[in-house]
Amino acid sequence: MAREKIEKKERMKIPRQPMPAQEPMDRIRNFSEVALGFTEDLALIEADRCLECKKPKCVDGCPVGIDIPGFIVKVQEADFAGALAIIKKDNTLPAICGRVCPQEDQCEIVCVTGKKSDPVAIGRLERFVADWEMAQGEISMPEQGPATGFKIAVVGSGPAGLACAADLALRGHKVTIYEALHKPGGVLVYGIPEFRLPKKIVQEEIGNLEKLGVEIRCNFVIGKTASVEELFTEYGFDAVFLGTGAGLPYFMGIPGENYIGVLSANEFLTRVNLMKAFAFPDFDTPVRLGDNVAVVGSGNVAMDCLRTAKRLGAKNVICLYRRTRDESPARLEELEHAEEEDIDFRWLASPVEIYGNEDGLVTGARVQVMELGEPDDSGRRRPVPIEGDQYDIELDQLIMGIGQGPNPLVTKSTKGLELNRWGNIVVDEETMMTSIDGVFAGGDIVTGAATVILAMGAGKKASEGIDAYLKGTAKASKTA
After folding, report:
1. DSSP string of 101-126?
2. Residue 478 has what pLDDT?
3. What's 118's domain CATH number?
């Protein structure tokens, strides 16, 4: 039965629908998903808030260019399959993006409804239709183009690699993904915790790529098992995409960082997420934690570490961040969830020394109190130490969540690959081709650590460049 259209004036009166979620003191005792997703009724109400603008800015705000008003109209009509078909023309990972993309800084921030009210919850609607399809048990995929005969190697199975592989497969190319770890997904499986992005969701959406004919080879380290050059000469690929991400952890260079119990966020989250340390002893990956844990940093990765430590049983979990809450780079939703979970936020605080005992174990840290000075190159006010204002905290574990740099394995082993001063790959902004003919790159290995959806947008853009390159080489060979 068709639903009646609501007048635009009435739509403006509908409040943004809240996301059902586990209660804070319940969820800190489990690794189940925190946000429970919209019910059908909530999704229909939220979809009715869309004004169906004549010039929708939300599409421009989406890095992969989803027809957002088009899919929301289908939700309004309760045609969820139709909504998903529209999304999948541009995004083959909607259940993932609906959960972890920062819509509030992209499509939702330019939503016209948001000018006089709260923006439409675009991400929550995307997640709803993706979850609805999974619940039906039949997954649809866009129609593939005819086989071209071209072979492309995609190095890395994170968001950039998956998006690039999916788009290339839809164009009719034969794609093989090479993943260094024992499971595909990149940061989606080793970085983002189960309570934010269940691994089952990731595996199901990666499985959809395999239905398109994409081959995935794990435990295959490009730069060790085979070089980029060998992908052309020995494996017969016509083009290569590098999406190896930003997996090189940063440390602060302060005294005591070598004590046992000081971990990078990457190591901590990989042990817990990919190697299932949260289920020890059912899985043989213990994590030494203790009662008192501090995480340095206040980005999304730091939030993941803080909330994971809480779930692993730490009694006191402290966030040390050298700026204030207003400058925190984390998604507001993740920051609010962490505050609800009783994380001890120490704003304007930065460790300057880590203490340890004769056994080499972390016992505490000296914390410097900061104040904000003049803006720095990032536009944010620079944190300045307050002379003589320091204090000590007791710790069993300290996790560095202050960012990460480009994975150097592929870049150091590939001759002729131009890098910038930070070690990121330099690409042509239009085609995403590197300094090596036929080699393309995108995602965090090019931009530095960023968001899932920006990496996917780069992967999709690179697939367009690869497709044009391959067609160009075919024309050239015919001309010759």
Report:
1. S-GGGTTGGG-GGGGTSPPP-HHHHH
2. 46
3. 1.10.1060.10
